[in-house]
Amino acid sequence: MKSTLHTTLLSRACYLLGSLALISLMSCSGTDESSHTSTLESNNKKPNFLWLISEDNSKHFLKLYDQAGASMPMVEELAEQGLIFDNAFSNAPVCSTARSTLATGAYGPRIGTQNHRTAEPIELPNGFTPFSESLKNAGYYTTNNFKSDYNFEGLDRVWHQSKSGAYWRDRTPNQPFFHVQSWKLTHEHTLHFPESDIQNNPTRHAPSKVDLSPIYPDTEAFRYTQARYLDHHQNIDGEMNKVLDMLKEDGELENTFIFYFGDHGGVLPASKGYIFERGINVPLIVRVPKNFRHLLSKDMQQPNNTRVDGFVSFIDFAPTLLKLAGLESAEYHDGEAFLGKNIDLKSLNKRDVTYSHADRFDEKSDLVRAVRKDNLKYIRNYQPFYSDGLFAEYRYRQYVYAEWKSLFQQGKLNQVQSAFFKPKSPEALYDIANDPQETTNLAALPKYQAQLVELRSMLQDEIKSWPDLGFYPESELLAQHTPKGVTAVGFGQANKTHIAGLIDIADLQLVPYQQAKAKLRQLLKSADQWQRYWALITLSSFGKQAEEFNQHIIQLAKSDSSIHVKARAIEFLGLNKVIDPVKPLSELIANTNNQFEQLQLLNIATNLHEQVNAVFVRPAVNTWPAPDKSSASYRGDRFFDVWFNVRWDYISDKI
Amino acid sequence: MKSTLHTTLLSRACYLLGSLALISLMSCSGTDESSHTSTLESNNKKPNFLWLISEDNSKHFLKLYDQAGASMPMVEELAEQGLIFDNAFSNAPVCSTARSTLATGAYGPRIGTQNHRTAEPIELPNGFTPFSESLKNAGYYTTNNFKSDYNFEGLDRVWHQSKSGAYWRDRTPNQPFFHVQSWKLTHEHTLHFPESDIQNNPTRHAPSKVDLSPIYPDTEAFRYTQARYLDHHQNIDGEMNKVLDMLKEDGELENTFIFYFGDHGGVLPASKGYIFERGINVPLIVRVPKNFRHLLSKDMQQPNNTRVDGFVSFIDFAPTLLKLAGLESAEYHDGEAFLGKNIDLKSLNKRDVTYSHADRFDEKSDLVRAVRKDNLKYIRNYQPFYSDGLFAEYRYRQYVYAEWKSLFQQGKLNQVQSAFFKPKSPEALYDIANDPQETTNLAALPKYQAQLVELRSMLQDEIKSWPDLGFYPESELLAQHTPKGVTAVGFGQANKTHIAGLIDIADLQLVPYQQAKAKLRQLLKSADQWQRYWALITLSSFGKQAEEFNQHIIQLAKSDSSIHVKARAIEFLGLNKVIDPVKPLSELIANTNNQFEQLQLLNIATNLHEQVNAVFVRPAVNTWPAPDKSSASYRGDRFFDVWFNVRWDYISDKI
Predict the structure, then answer these.
(1) C-alpha distances in angstroms, A186 versus A57, A100, B400?
(2) Averaged pLDDT of chain B
(3) Which of B8, B35, B384, B441 has its CA 20 to 30 A from that of B603?
(4) Quick check: ipTM above 0.85?
(5) What is the DSSP letter of A635?
(6) Cβ(A607)–Cβ(A576) under 8 Å?
(7) Given CA atoms A221, A223, A226, A228 in this order, what sign does their dihedral have?
(8) Where are the alpha helices (DSSP H) in A105-186?
(9) Which residue on chain A is closest to B528 by alpha carbon?
């Protein structure tokens, strides 16, 4: 049976490739794969691709990027025949979201995959093909080992195998392959160790020597954690090396483009989950195989620890692999290839822009967008009255997360160390070259005004062009895109103007209150609940300045027809201490059976708990469904169950 | 105390009138009120106004308008020194709605008073003063005896007295007055007699001689009912005459403009509640007092059964009285004065346009607008899949209503008689001169296309200019206008463009399905629930033609975030027999505690009950609050209670 299947696949591969009119000379028999393959032959062959992914680590923990980083011999070996990207970015700072962009080549907020996790996977439009499926359709053998945490539907079509133990070895002889493998040894959970480890479980790296970010308090625990995380980098390198050995054994080393990268930044506090550089600037090494050097521009054909300064991000990965495989990028790809015959290093190094986004990650919701251009980074916090440190169960399992917060609560932190736990500015501007840890917001400085305005405008234009689906509550996005024939993408396209209008309302946060208020007054009267919704968020960003709206907003909280508007009205009133938000918000939560609505309401409650000490009363009976193992939605329901439990315990002072 | 009050009022009147610089010569002492009052004196005096209102009758029951009508000696006496308006219209065919326009001079759907009744009275904007309050502020003594069924707030400011037994006699000597009195002897309830009356309670008018509309089956009961209603006209005339006698006794006859009119049409079936001519074309006689003839144009100063052909409607009454009182119309008045020095009969008779509207009346909801221009009448049914005969408890108490429906159900009616119980056309065009009972829809005839397009366009422009608040569900309108500082008017103005967009969506009903469907497909994906809502209503108007949308709409019914959209989706699916609507619609009803939402859902259920025999199961426990006598909302809650009870009984086949 197996050989029949292989034959079929081979025929199919030949048919498909033939039909693309790219390989009229190609023989379907085996070809010599030594480094002496003739140019003609290798022109007709496809390179393999191997992705080696370490989870949750920003580039800053590798000696290849930072003096104080960990040695990673395998990664360094790749670099010896490879390109080292100094500015490679995950567009999102969390797993399933980042991964969804890798797979599709599209920005998450454009296609609806921006939330982590999406219990209801997003349907992609017809013809919107994950690039690994395109490779598969073009004859590649595609395998994934084995993380499959994506936020869209249709994963079964993408891989020949996707499981632990999947490798390229089951393919038809000489069939080109694409193999993805992730390792968890640097994953967040590896820092969920007990406090006692600090004494009892010494690290190889010396805690005293780590280069601690100035945003953290310089405690023994932080130093230990960072040292331990450096150790994990060494560990993961050893694990990854085993796959490299397999490749060598199989004689495929010089037929294979090897990409080593992190799936997003992390994973000390305030990194994973946040679009600071430490949350998105990942290590990326691409080793160029001798037999496929000709696919690159001349100046990149023989790389040797060659530094690339140009900006690349996860939207660019799909176009890059497709190009190297001789396939066309799709129109829906948001990025562009960064490797290829016509892409020389000089022009690549001129690329200096990247966009990033953060939405709901686990039970914690926010809405943050950023653009970095060269060394300036602009961050837009659309809900500035939420602190970055807003409680999230999984994050605070890390000992130093809890320690950090505790020190904040005790008033023991300086301003830079405290910022994480305080409401944010609507916009921030950082000079990354001189302030890589983004501690000093330059947005108010007159000398930066021109650049501030330029970056603000770039970001506005970019997210309007997607358009950015994050401007609707998740429950609404899911409700509207679910109907057959309406994908999230289609929903966005149908509402592009509408979304642009919402972005403009949010951007009233950036003008003085006196200038914004007349417009906001009008918007509160809009028949469009999303306009009222965003007007309220914007009013909350003005805080007590907007108190003349109190009476009006009290009425909205009581009698608006939209639960979303009511919730945002209660939020405004609660944050400004006009009313006690506990009762009305609890009623809203009790009166919806939409899990995503409940989740957002609980996020609002959590912020109120932290900002104004609102203490809620956990209901005697859960208002969310118990996860049912026999249900198709079990996986999602299980996440929700945890999130609801922990939110309720937290806001009712039980934890 | 009383005299002190009178003195105060008198002083105030003098101050106010003086401040208007209209009466510098006026003495505050008594003046001779005989018919010999000098021109100078009467120039400085204000006329009185007396409104005599018979409830629920169109002009067609008066001999003054129709050969077969009833003699009404008092009305005929007024006409002898008066103007007989052949084309006077209530803009709405039901009490509180019509009355609200009389009081404010504004179209109901513009100011939010279009629904009957509004348990939550609509707040008028600041400075939006009912004209009787303006008269009061200008020194008039204002009394109402005693119907106070209006849909807006602030009635306590309008009248010196508003109760049974209120008259002008408590005013300061010689204070001008405005007195309103309504009589119920022609009110709908007077036709709620038992079937046995037909035999046992003979009428003065001969049933055999009544001129029955061709829309009714020619039954004994219908003839009896119409004869009895003619009797009621005689009765009411005698009652009204008593007030006229009081006026004569007080020597105020020739100081008083007397308006006799019906508050809207009625009241055999298919009149009150509908904007057919029989629902809105009311009798109107204005008797001109000798002492104030000079306030009119020369050609109307000595009227004697003088016919006025020009169109006037309730929006014009406020400006007319203000003008006669020497006061300015307000900017917010939608109409214009029809009596005054500069308004000659010839120009008045050129007025040939009137607009009307029908929305929720009691528990029955629909959305119908009309324009009549000269003899052509254009009716726009925005929910054509609702029959006019949709069940409404109060209406069907009339024996012939029930008989008519029963004959329809037995298949015993001709086409003209059946139309009332069938779904409607989105638009209808009638030639009123030749077809006063609106039996023959000319909209499809090629020769009327130019006129159809002209009237359609007039109506579109008019309702967009208001803008028409009826395009939002009532629950939404109330929820959005409630907040302090946002009146219904303000809400409309803030959403004028939005409403115009909804009207355009509804008007896709008027183009062929194949032309409309691409746009509708897009609209179903809109982030704006009201766009989806109207797209669904429009799709329902296309019936099974739109079946390609079934799957999409099933998803909306399941998972849309808007209860309104869900309901309209279920409606589409139910009407087209794609699904059994009972369970999903019942769930929606059970899951909202908003009375107005429940009411609208029950209206949808009622239509499904009638159109596709959907039988619902009345809940064991009511889902609406029991009326509580101690509650401020008791009056409204009592209405709701009846409406809910009867709707549930009806749709669950209990009645």
Answers:
(1) 7, 20, 82
(2) 91
(3) B441
(4) no
(5) H
(6) no
(7) negative
(8) 108-111, 131-137
(9) A528
Q: Which residues of chain A have pLDDT under 70?
A: 1-44, 119, 483-485
B95 is a catalytic site residue: yes
For residue B587, list chain A residues with Cβ-Cβ distance below 8 A: none
Are A230 and A203 spatial neighbours (Cβ–Cβ below 8 Å)?
yes
- Per residue in B169-222, pLDDT (tens digit) is 999 998 999 999 999 999 999 999 999 999 999 999 999 999 999 999 999 999
Task: Give me chain A's average pLDDT, please.
Answer: 91
A554 contacts on B by Cβ (under 8 Å)? 483
Is residue A246 exposed (0-12), middle (13-18) or buried (19+ Cβ within 10 Å)?
Answer: middle
pLDDT tens-digit map of A561-571 = 999 999 999 99
DSSP type of residue B163: S
- Which residue type sits at B475? S
The answer for residues whose C-beta is within 8 angstroms of residue B249's C-beta and 6 or more apart is: none
- Mean pLDDT of the region B644-649: 95
Which residues are bridge partners to A312 per DSSP? A88
* Residue A447 to chain B, least CA–CA distance (Å): 39
Q: How far is A148 from chain B (nearest CA, A)?
A: 27
Residue from the list A494, A529, A554 with its beta carbon closest to the beta carbon of B522: A494
Q: Which long-range contacts (CB under 8 A, 24 or more apart) does B642-645 make?
A: B642/B393, B643/B362, B643/B363, B643/B393, B643/B599, B643/B602, B644/B363, B644/B598, B644/B599, B644/B602
Q: Dump pLDDT digits (tens) for A315-324.
A: 999 999 999 9
Using a CB-CB cut-off of 8 Å, the residues of chain A touching B479 are: 559-561
Widest distance between CA atoms in chain B: 80
For the whole prediction, is pTM greater than 0.90?
A: no
Q: Which residues of A touch B (CB under 8 A)?
A: 472, 475-476, 478-480, 482-486, 490-491, 494-495, 498-499, 521-522, 524-530, 551-556, 558-561, 594
d(CA A265, CA A193): 20
Q: What is the pLDDT of residues B252-305, one digit of tens each?
A: 999 999 999 999 999 999 999 999 999 999 999 999 999 999 999 999 999 999
Q: Which residues contact B506 (CB under 8 A, 6 or more apart)?
A: B382, B471, B534, B537, B538
What are phi and psi for residue A369, nearest 5 degrees? -130, 155
Which ranges of A46-168 would DSSP assign to H, the alpha helix? 73-80, 95-104, 108-111, 131-137
The partner residue sitting opposite A527, judged by closest CB among B475, B530, B555, is: B530
Cβ B482–A522 below 8 Å, yes or no?
A: no
User: CA-to-CA distance for A460 and A335, rounded, in angstroms?
Assistant: 18
DSSP per position, B534-547: HHHHHHHHHGGGGG
Sign of the CA dihedral with A19 first, then A25, A29, and A35 last: negative
Angle at A326 between CA A290 and CA A171, to 5 degrees: 75
Q: In this predicted model, what pLDDT tens digit does every residue of B460-503 receive, in sequence order?
A: 999 999 999 999 999 999 888 776 568 999 999 999 999 999 99
Interface of B with A (CB under 8 A): 472, 475-476, 478-480, 482-486, 490-491, 494-495, 498-499, 522, 524-530, 551-556, 558-561, 594
Distance from CA of B369 to the nearest CA of A (A): 21
Predicted confidence band of residue B27 (pLDDT cuts 50, 70, 90): very low
- Using alpha carbons, list the distances in angstroms from residue B386 to A253, B543, B566: 73, 12, 18
Q: Of the listed B62, B92, B94, B95, which one is catalytic?
A: B95
Question: What are the backbone dihedrals phi and psi of residue A562, each rounded to the nearest 5 degrees, phi first?
Answer: -105, 130
Q: Is the Cβ pair B551, A491 closer than 8 Å?
A: no
Q: Can you read off the two tokens belonging to residue A248?
A: 């060598």
Interface test with chain B among A481, A503, A525, by most B beta carbons within 10 Å: A525
Q: Could you give the C-alpha distances from A509 to A86, A381, A425, B228, B500, in angstroms and in order? A: 34, 10, 10, 68, 29
